[in-house]
């Protein structure tokens, strides 16, 4: 077997696979409703809690992203060793509960803690889903299937504006002084989107667990001790336990770990002094140090997985290249509604219908068409999927520029629609590319690593940068969002390199794993 040859024939996909994929899409829709509803609520939260745009960017991005990314690592390991269906159900119940509890927040600290809980719960979803999809669909259809799953991101993100806008305006109209329990509109919105997830969690439990790796001709037996690896990864990635994990590997590993901690602490401290924002750099400093610690530990205890992920230039170019797409896309997606409300005079209901609903359609079409094109090009060129990622990086830029420089709200809606459509095209291709570069047993961790780039780079930095630039330039959200274009040249260089590196890496997955000590 080389690359994606196994499982790439014309065999028919069972109807159950499509049904199960539909359930996963519903989960992802709710995932992003709970995550993205913060956008339409941002101006109300700002007024009620007395916070600034940089905090709102931190709340949406970094507070969520760091814990989503860090817990995604041990939970990705658990997805590689335990029942993925059960893991998703438990995670869905957790993040839905924390979303509902956000509705009772009375200050920024409480809302931040609830947001952290949402991040931890949602970290179960995609590692489990990506692994399940890779076992339900043959390689020739994985980019398409992953793109369909990923469409939930855009559907959920889009309709969250519509749902949130309707709830806030109707609640505040009915209870102008606050409703039951003193809740105002934005708090009621959190409750309304959080509670249904508890019902969906029960439905998820009815899904059947596929045999891991069977569709690729590499059936993998169940791990008799699935939680041992999870606990080990947890201690390798969550400070301060990371120090003890490093010490257990020897004096040299401990010294490297402490040097890494000092380096990230120094960088975080310098950025705090430069920007005056403490929470952002504290969270990111801890996050980057934790990932560094985990990576060093992974190299020591699972060299084949390390070599095929962190040790693979092709894998890194793909995930970091897509991270720059996410950097700009998350900023534009989150700040679109607050910008139109403040700068262009749109009301929340209008934003739901003309920004949220079309955005859902645009994202859905973009991710599906991009995934299908990625599979089409892969049949003709080994680097075909990477071309689609590159397209998703470059083509949205003119549309974003028009959207955030016009004074006409209708032009803004058109520009935002096109930017969403074009940037969404990259996701299925990037996800499938990352999965193609590892063995079946590594897919959960590969997905978690892929999402480190989209979260700690894209989500953790993009929305905050836009909010910080806005807050320090007279609440100029136009300048804030457009400042994220700084990421585009870096992404372009990484993806051009990926065009050269991915074909050879995908064709030699098994050989490189064997060279690192894997028994295949």
UniProtKB/TrEMBL annotation:
Domain Major facilitator superfamily (MFS) profile: 20-506
Name of this chain's protein: MFS transporter
SUPFAM superfamilies per record: MFS general substrate transporter
Keywords attached to this entry: Membrane, Transmembrane, Transmembrane helix, Transport
InterPro entries according to UniProt: MFS, MFS_dom, MFS_spinster-like, MFS_trans_sf
Record's bilayer topology term: Multi-pass membrane protein
The keyword Transmembrane helix is annotated on this UniProt entry: yes
Localization per Swiss-Prot or TrEMBL: Membrane
Segments traversing the membrane: 16-34, 55-75, 87-105, 146-168, 188-207, 254-274, 280-298, 310-331, 351-374, 386-404, 410-432, 444-465, 477-502
Pfam family, one: MFS_1
Database matches in PANTHER family: PROTEIN SPINSTER (PTHR23505:SF79), SPINSTER (PTHR23505)
Source domain of life: Bacteria
